Amino acid sequence: MHKHHPDIGPKPGKPFRVQHVQQYFTAGRPLTMLTAYDAITARIIDSAEIDMILVGDSYGTTMLGMSSTVGVTLDDMVRATAAVAAGASRALVVADMPFGTYESSPAQAVDTAVVLVRAGAAAVKLEGGRRILPQVKAIVNAGINVMGHLGFTPQSENHLGGKRLQGRSDAAPELIADALALQDAGAFSIVFEMVPAATTRAAVNQLNIPIIGIGAGPDAAGQVLVWTDMAGMQDWKPSFAQVFGQVGAELKHAAQNYRDAVVNRTFPAPENYHEN
Ligand code: KIV
């Protein structure tokens, strides 16, 4: 059941902004976020009043057939961000800074963030904690909203030894120290990916910015999913995702119906063309 909080959030027809993220968080209203990589999907997700759309670098693995996110380029992200920004009128558009575009220096990070904001992003997301703090500070100082990303950070999959839970018991204090450092550096929110629920809960109790969880348990202030996992676009899904609709099966069904109609010569029908 959709619970309305009439006094918070943007006025009808107005965009959802970072201030509304904090407003929802303070009011205890869970924040919703889905990925999108193109205008038509962004339009549909936006019309469902999802608060934030993440132009994730999962673009590479979901849409471009890559085996990891490290091959995604800034040009890829610019094209996807511009498309999503064109399709979304309400949601806050957050663009991922791809691998290799911010690690070298704060100046490199600011240059990348500026390119993504020019493409239409209202905020940028980058992976890492204290090791990228100068970058986060520099981007915030440039007047750009920053979302952090801790826990399993896919761009460092090789370094982390594979796709596995991060921040378990002994490692929890380090992860929380990273989260506090990002908060102090000016991040408005932090994604926690594949983090034990107990660690997320401990972080929630210490932070005054919202954690957006993916595989991080029920205590995060909001949840994010990759839209293709959420909508059942393929047979496989990560264990932390839930399938909320069978869009993949429906698309296949539509393609089969189209194929049959063409083969049986029932399409195009008279209403689909002009004789003269
Ligand atoms: O790229 C992405 O989709 C992400 C989410 C998994 C948080 O970073």
Description:
The chain is globular. An 8-stranded parallel barrel has the order 1-2-3-4-5-6-7-8, surrounded by 7 helices. The mean pLDDT is 96. The chain has 276 residues and is an alpha/beta fold. Helix content is 39%, strand content 14%. Helix 4 runs parallel beside helix 5 and helix 8 runs parallel beside helix 9. It has a single domain, classed as Phosphoenolpyruvate-binding domains (TIM Barrel). The structure holds 3-methyl-2-oxobutanoic acid. This is 3-methyl-2-oxobutanoate hydroxymethyltransferase. InterPro entries: Pantoate_hydroxy_MeTrfase, Pyrv/PenolPyrv_kinase-like_dom, Pyrv_kinase-like_dom_sf. It holds the Pfam family Pantoate_transf. Belongs to the PanB family.
- Count of DSSP strands: 8
Summed up, the helix count is 11
The profile of the biggest β sheet is: 8 strands, parallel, barrel
- The quaternary structure here is single chain
Query: Which geometry do the CA atoms define?
Result: globular
Architecture, according to CATH?
Answer: Alpha-Beta Barrel
Mean pLDDT: 96
Structural class assignment: alpha/beta
Give the terminus-to-terminus CA distance. Answer: 53 Å
Point out poorly predicted stretches. Answer: none
Summarize the entry for a quick read.
With 276 residues, the protein is an alpha/beta fold.
Identify the notable features of this structure and list them briefly.
11 helices, magnesium ion binding, 3-methyl-2-oxobutanoate hydroxymethyltransferase activity, methyltransferase activity, 8-stranded parallel barrel, 39% helix, alpha/beta, TIM Barrel, binds 3-methyl-2-oxobutanoic acid, globular, single chain, 276 residues, metal-binding
